[in-house]
C-alpha cells in the first residue's frame, strides 16, 4: 500500500468547486488521484461546516516554535560534534527556552540528523 498523501487546502477547495459545478464524485477523485471515500468525506465536511480545512487534531502542543526548531537545526549543523546537552544550553541562552535533551534529539531526528558514533569493531 502506498503511503498516504495529504491533500493541501487548494486541492480540497478545487475538489469542492468541481463537485459544485456538477462534476461527479468519481471524476473528482480520479482527477486528484485519491479514493472516492476521500471526496465523500470532504464533501460531507464542507456541507456540515462550510470549510475545507482539516479539523484540529488532539495532542500535546509542541514546546518549541518553528523559529526555535530552525535554531536547533542550525546549531547542530554548525557544530557537528555538539551533543544534545550542549545544543540545549545554547538554545536556553539564545531564546530563554528550557526544553529537555530528548526534545532536542526529537527535533534533530525530524530534520533527519542522526548522531555519529565511531564504528566499534569486535575483537577476534
From TrEMBL:
Read off the Gene3D superfamilies from this record: Winged helix-like DNA-binding domain superfamily/Winged helix DNA-binding domain (1.10.10.10)
Q: Write down what this protein is called.
A: Transposase Tc1-like domain-containing protein
What's the source species for this entry?
Littorina saxatilis
Amino acid at each position: 500500500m502506498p503511503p498516504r498523501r495529504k491533500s493541501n487546502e487548494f486541492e480540497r477547495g478545487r475538489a469542492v468547486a468541481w463537485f459544485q459545478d456538477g462534476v461527479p464524485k468519481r471524476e473528482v477523485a480520479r482527477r486528484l488521484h485519491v479514493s472516492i471515500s476521500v471526496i465523500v468525506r470532504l464533501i460531507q465536511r464542507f456541507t456540515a461546516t462550510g470549510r475545507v480545512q482539516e479539523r484540529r487534531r488532539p495532542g500535546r502542543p509542541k514546546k518549541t516554535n518553528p523559529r526555535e526548531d530552525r535554531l536547533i537545526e542550525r546549531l547542530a549543523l554548525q557544530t557537528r560534534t555538539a551533543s544534545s546537552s550542549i545544543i540545549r544550553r545554547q538554545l536556553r541562552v539564545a531564546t530563554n527556552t528550557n526544553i529537555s535533551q530528548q526534545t532536542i534529539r526529537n527535533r534533530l531526528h525530524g530534520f533527519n540528523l542522526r548522531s555519529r558514533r565511531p564504528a566499534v569493531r569486535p575483537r577476534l
